[in-house]
Amino acid sequence: MAKSEGRLPTLMTSRLIAPCGMNCALCSGYLRAKKQCPGCRAADDGKPSYCVHCQISTCERLAKGELAFCGSDCDAFPCKRLKQLDKRYRAKYGMSMLDNLETIREIGVDKFVAKEKTRWTCPECGSLLCVHKTGCLTCGYVWNSGSGDLWEGNHAC
Ligand code: SF4
Ligand code: SF4
Ligand SMILES: [Zn+2]
Fold it and tell me: Does 104 reside within a domain?
């Protein structure tokens, strides 16, 4: 394995897992070289406006600060907006927020993060892979030849 020059899996923490199940550590907004987004759970400074105004992160049930994850605690789960987001991500990126939330509910967020580190580490260079891109941002290794790079946006919401 070549030495990594990209962002490393050790950066992935539970705080980077958004309430909707998105792993912000895999987002092109988080992984890009400049103007990196700090992730959904951070303060809005540095976030793109589409994530500041995301219908899920601004959901009144989440805004009260009582729910850690949509899938763990909300009695409306999975609501229409979450299902729409999940459908788009399944189709375009081969990743499912609902599956993530189900795993978090079953094993807890810390074990989920451990699994994600294994799943999304580039086997060629050891950097974090980006869910929005077919190839590793650092070395070009193609992890997903069937999707990604299709959506002009680079965000979850
Ligand atoms: S752009 Fe949105 S999905 Fe991407 S890291 Fe920022 S908050 Fe998370
Ligand atoms: S699942 Fe519940 S908490 Fe999450 S966005 Fe929908 S209504 Fe809000
Ligand atoms: Zn790589």
Answer: yes
111 CA from centroid of ligand 3 (Å): 24
What is the residue range of 89's domain? Answer: 9-119
Residue 128 pairs in a beta bridge with 121
Q: Say what the pLDDT of residue 153 is.
A: 45
In a domain, 83, yes or no: yes
Q: Is the CB of 52 under 6 A from ligand 2?
A: no
* Dihedral sign, Cα of residue 88, residue 16, residue 47, residue 126: negative
Average per-residue pLDDT in the chain?
Answer: 89
- Nearest CA among 39, 20, 156 for reference residue 82: 20
Ligand positioned closest to the Cα atom of 31: 1
114-130: pLDDT as tens digits: 999 999 999 999 999 99
Atom 6 (ligand 2) nearest CA: 79
Ligand 1 pocket mutation pick from 51, 53, 86, 93 by most atoms within 8 angstroms of CB: 51
| Arithmetic mean of pLDDT, 63-67 | 82
Is the omega angle on the peptide bond into residue 78 within 30 degrees of 0, that is, cis? yes
110 located within any domain: yes
Determine, yes or no, domain membership for 3. no
Read off the pTM. Answer: 0.90
